[in-house]
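Write out this protein's structure.
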Amino acid sequence: MTKGDIQQLLQKSFRSHPPPTGDDLVMDNGDEKTVREIRNLFTGRRWYELDPEFVIEHADLLWLMAVSAQRYYIPAYLLATFHVSKDWIYTNNLLLSLFLPLRNEDDPARDTFVRFLEALTPIEKSAIRAFLDFTAAEHPSQGERGAAKLALSVLWRKFEALPVEQDRKSA
């Protein structure tokens, strides 16, 4: 697959959902400043219309969102990796966040991450796997390739590749 194929796959796999609002956008246990910031920045914004620079600027907010918002905005965060310099930490941190909460049963983010995984449809999981396969094979940075390979081996490799149309019919 090419970068363009991955972009199209993510767009087809995630595009059908409306943007989250209110309690579906922000975790209820966040501090008030973060809750306001997420609501101000993301309410009503479609993931596929977000500028990669905007996503990168707010990289720290994805895992502070409610699970439904994490599911909705994850493709924007994945696609933003195509727009960062190869030596920047954004990509590596994002890739590590796709499995690290599962490594430690005492990690407070583990339950939220498991709910995130459960919220994803099979085709969405498959699209994330394809993104990781591409990154593991094609990313210019050895660190990102290693993080993608680790994410695949720890979790994502178990999700089979599915055609986009199959999931839409079963969803």
